[in-house]
């Protein structure tokens, strides 16, 4: 083994031994080998937002709110440290997504519960493993994103800056075990088990004082999803995808209907077209939530299920310019609002329409830059806040600029 001159000099005067130096060098080499395949990435997400009128901000959908109205915002900083799975049969790796900033509080994964105001949260943190069964099963053990939804929890991965109502009612984060198996290039299935619907890390359903399922230590959350992809032989439709899945388990609080058993269903599709750069998307979310009559002194109505249906259109006009639109109809907007911001607003069974248009032009390298206009309309009652407080407006109009740097 070769030693540098500094090590040899220390050995000559008796400060170190060559044997200990050799062992230290071996340990350092092992650490360097382990870290050689580790990647560090992330992004910084910022925005400027203007809500027309006075006091007309909306808390109806996730990662927005009156706190972001009429000003500049740091949304979130994500730092990702990961070692992806390689192609070997017994591959192993890991991923940790750390969030810093106001959106970390909305994420709600803090082990001490959501809303702690720490501006710090773990989005994902799991060990990745592969077992050579058939084509290979890829496993995630730890904290991972939900398997449902058209939109990602990362704003930069979505066609629009603001989130949909459908995304807002979906499960977001689970602590458990998830396996994914690809039968072929066109068919894959994921299935898993988790402590609760989430998102609080390490949460247990049996530790919640409730009349439904309380004290049953074996009670867990189960999830299944499937993805179908159109093969290349389908011509212009090649690459189109169809998704379906459900998550069934226990939610320990924060829902409009209180703690209790709930089931989330999702069906979505991305459809290619004969027009180059043009594609459509469809998404339908249904939250079957049967809460308890009372929890911690508060009354929660039973049977107030929530659903949302969305239509997406995206067109890649040039290499840098893309246009995106989303139309959505959602039921019980105040229930969605209470889901996103617990305790805000009364329950109702009305509906809300939403239209969102986004223009994205990637002028700078590694930067997503886009401008968005969004209009929400309550078709039966006022669901947006007015200048005098409370919910006195049926319409909410917003213009936003979103700048994200990815590294």
Structural description of this entry:
This protein has 5 helices and 20 strands. The protein has one domain: Porin. The protein is mainly beta and 407 residues long. The protein has helices spanning 5-12, 18-35, 103-107, 165-169, 333-340; strands at 39-51, 71-83, 92-100, 120-131, 137-145, 173-184, 187-194, 221-229, 241-251, 260-272, 278-289, 294-295, 298-299, 306-316, 321-331, 351-361, 367-378, 384-385, 391-393, 395-406. The protein has a 16-stranded antiparallel β-barrel with strand order 1-2-3-4-5-6-7-8-9-10-11-14-15-16-17-20. Strands 12-13 form a two-stranded antiparallel sheet.
Helix and strand arrangement:
Blueprint: H1 5-12, H2 18-35, E1 39-51, E2 71-83, E3 92-100, H3 103-107, E4 120-131, E5 137-145, H4 165-169, E6 173-184, E7 187-194, E8 221-229, E9 241-251, E10 260-272, E11 278-289, E12 294-295, E13 298-299, E14 306-316, E15 321-331, H5 333-340, E16 351-361, E17 367-378, E18 384-385, E19 391-393, E20 395-406
Antiparallel strand pairs: 1-2, 1-20, 2-3, 3-4, 4-5, 5-6, 6-7, 7-8, 8-9, 9-10, 10-11, 11-14, 12-13, 14-15, 15-16, 16-17, 17-20, 18-19
Q: What are the defining features of this structure?
A:
407 residues; mainly beta; Porin; 16-stranded antiparallel barrel; 20 strands; 46% strand
The CATH topology assignment is: Porin
How many domains comprise the coordinates? Answer: 1
Rough shape? globular
Radius of gyration: 24 Å
Helix-strand makeup class: mainly beta
């Amino acid at each position: 083994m070769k030693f540098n001159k500094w090590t040899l000099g220390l050995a000559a005067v008796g400060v170190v031994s060559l044997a200990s130096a050799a062992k230290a060098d071996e340990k350092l080499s092992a650490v360097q080998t382990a870290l050689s395949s580790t990647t560090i990435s992330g992004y910084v997400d910022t925005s400027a937002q203007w809500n027309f009128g006075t006091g007309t901000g909306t808390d109806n959908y996730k990662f927005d709110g009156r706190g972001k109205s009429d000003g500049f915002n740091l949304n979130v900083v994500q730092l990702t440290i990961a070692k992806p799975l390689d192609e070997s049969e017994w591959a192993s790796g890991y991923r940790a997504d750390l969030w810093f900033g106001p959106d970390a509080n909305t994420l709600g994964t803090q082990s001490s519960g959501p809303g702690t105001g720490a501006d710090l949260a773990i989005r994902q943190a799991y060990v990745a493993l592969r077992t050579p069964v058939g084509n290979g099963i890829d496993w995630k053990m730890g904290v991972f994103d939900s398997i449902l939804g058209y939109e990602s929890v990362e704003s930069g991965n979505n066609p629009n800056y603001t989130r949909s109502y459908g995304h807002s009612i979906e499960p977001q984060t689970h602590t458990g075990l998830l396996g994914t198996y690809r039968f072929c290039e066109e068919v894959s299935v994921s299935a898993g088990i988790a402590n609760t619907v989430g998102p609080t890390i390490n949460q247990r359903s049996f530790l919640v004082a409730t009349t439904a399922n309380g004290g049953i230590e074996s009670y867990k959350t189960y999830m299944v999803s499937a993805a179908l992809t159109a093969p290349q032989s389908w011509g212009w439709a090649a690459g189109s995808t169809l998704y379906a899945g459900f998550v069934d388990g226990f939610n320990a609080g924060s829902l409009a209907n209180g703690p209790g058993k709930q089931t989330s269903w999702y069906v979505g599709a991305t459809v290619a077209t004969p027009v180059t750069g043009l594609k459509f998307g469809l998404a339908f979310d249904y939250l079957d939530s049967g809460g308890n009559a009372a929890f911690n002194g508060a009354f929660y109505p039973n049977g107030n299920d929530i659903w949302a249906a969305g239509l997406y259109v995206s067109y890649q006009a040039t290499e840098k310019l893309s246009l995106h639109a989303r139309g959505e109809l959602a039921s019980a907007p105040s229930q969605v609002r209470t889901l996103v911001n617990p305790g805000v607003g009364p329950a109702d069974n009305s509906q809300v329409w939403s239209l969102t248009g986004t223009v994205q032009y990637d002028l700078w390298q590694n930067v997503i830059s886009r401008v968005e206009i969004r209009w929400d309309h309550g078709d039966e009652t006022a669901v947006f806040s007015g200048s005098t407080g409370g919910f006195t407006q049926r319409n909410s109009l917003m213009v936003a600029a979103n700048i994200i740097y990815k590294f």
